[in-house]
């Protein structure tokens, strides 16, 4: 019996203590991940040219948040075996024995259905369809199919996390535009260097869990090169809204600075020694700040431009 199998069986044998708190169920929703998803969805809605009532706008953002949280809960249900093996996830509610796996699945499925239904009834069918497709893609394509089978799991699976601004735009306008697709593309390209930076310094945990992240399959050097390549592409793509004349120079300058710092961080990761994980940790942290700041610049530019 392999170590992974033994640890997996041990983790699945951990019964729920029946002492789950509200905090444990909130943890199932992956609130830190949800916050970024909700913010990008809100920006997509806020800068769209449509005229949506504030109450409906609030409902739309809440549906995006609940749908994202539902995806996270179902992901934790499916990944409970590998979560128990990895140090960064073994304290999650299911492997820690605080929430029963079946309860977590039911919780996620109910929230997913609720978020899509409310979006369809209160906002519009297109935004609900996009939300449903996003949840389905994250659960079935990324979590159940790609994550454990290919080092390109994050590259392809990143599409799920890139859709929220398109959903927000559709909620406000009832359609999809080139600018909303550019926002999708920015997040899609941002996802690989963001996760690969994490995977570099958590490579041992991913290997132990049997997850074929790029550093595990292709090695550290190849991963660092791809991080740099995606970072350069991201810096260029970040300028697209300005190049499309959809923003003013306020956003353009912010994008240049933020993108330049991202590339600089990727260069430092590439130059770092094999045992020096500090640049990878810094890039991972900065990548989160980058996306918040870039979409914040889009929002600020929209307000400044009136």
UniProtKB/TrEMBL annotation:
Record's subcellular location: Cell membrane
GO CC, alphabetical: plasma membrane
Catalytically driven reaction(s): heme b + (2E,6E)-farnesyl diphosphate + H2O = Fe(II)-heme o + diphosphate
EC number(s) from the headed UniProt entry: 2.5.1.141
Superkingdom of this protein's organism: Bacteria
Transmembrane domains' residue ranges: 33-50, 56-78, 99-122, 128-146, 153-172, 178-201, 227-244, 250-270, 282-305
Pathway(s) where this gene product acts: Porphyrin-containing compound metabolism; heme O biosynthesis; heme O from protoheme: step 1/1
UniProt membrane topology term: Multi-pass membrane protein
InterPro entries reported for this sequence: Protohaem_IX_farnesylTrfase (IPR006369), UbiA_prenyltransferase (IPR000537), UbiA_prenylTrfase_CS (IPR030470), UbiA_sf (IPR044878)
UniProt keywords, alphabetically: Cell membrane, Heme biosynthesis, Membrane, Transferase, Transmembrane, Transmembrane helix
One of the GO biological process terms: heme O biosynthetic process
Principal place of residence: membrane
GO MF entries: protoheme IX farnesyltransferase activity
EC class name: transferase
Pfam families: UbiA
HAMAP family: CyoE_CtaB (MF_00154)
Function summary: Converts heme B (protoheme IX) to heme O by substitution of the vinyl group on carbon 2 of heme B porphyrin ring with a hydroxyethyl farnesyl side group.
Similarity annotation: Belongs to the UbiA prenyltransferase family. Protoheme IX farnesyltransferase subfamily.
Other noteworthy facts: Carbon 2 of the heme B porphyrin ring is defined according to the Fischer nomenclature.
Protein's name according to its UniProt entry: Protoheme IX farnesyltransferase
Gene from which the chain derives: ctaB
